[in-house]
Amino acid sequence: MTSPAALLVSLGHQAGALCTLRAVAAPHRPHRLPQPSHTQTCSPAWHSLREETEVSEPGGAAELEEEKTVPGKSPKDGDETGELSPLSPDEPRPERLAWPGLVRCETLREMALRSKLSRLVEATSQLVEVEQILLLPLLQQHPLPLHPKDSIEFRNICSHMALQRKGQQFEKDLYEAHQCLKTIIEKLICSLAVFPSDSCVPVRFALRQILQNLLAM
């Protein structure tokens, strides 16, 4: 197989792997927060008007006076201090009642994995772009022996990773995908090292830059 045809096959597998990686790295849709109740959506002015109306209704003032004269209860309890009585252990917390569907925070481990996956997506995208724009026109003039085996393996690893999404197997697949992409880039650099023309210098530089970013993960 000539190098342009082999590179096209490799590009096809790498592009498929890139689509899979982007789907895996896409953020999950967050839980829908509950809608506020009708009392929460009312303005403070409405509440003030409602309180005034309740007090001005017949019997309202008398009820308030009776409440103030209840034995054992001071009319100033809780008014001046502003302190709230503690909740009992069995009583639901206000924040739980207000936002029962909040998404939990990410752990440091999950954040590290997400960052590593994001950089793997970026490196794969850059490699496909360099091969399409720089390497393919170059190989049409000076063929080199290339084989798409590593690209096929890379796509298979990414497909398997998409079925896991999390856990130790996902971490293992992410590591293997990282190593496989590293191998692909290193082999391309070695092949171009014996290239008979200086026209491959920009390609080697771009590949080394991608490899450097990948190794920094």
From TrEMBL:
InterPro entries: DLEU7
Highest taxon, organism lineage: Eukaryota
Biased composition regions of type Basic and acidic residues, renumbered to the chain: 67-79
Stretch list, region Disordered: 50-96
Protein name listed in UniProt: LEU7 protein
Organism: Columbina picui (Picui ground-dove)
Gene from which this protein is expressed: Dleu7
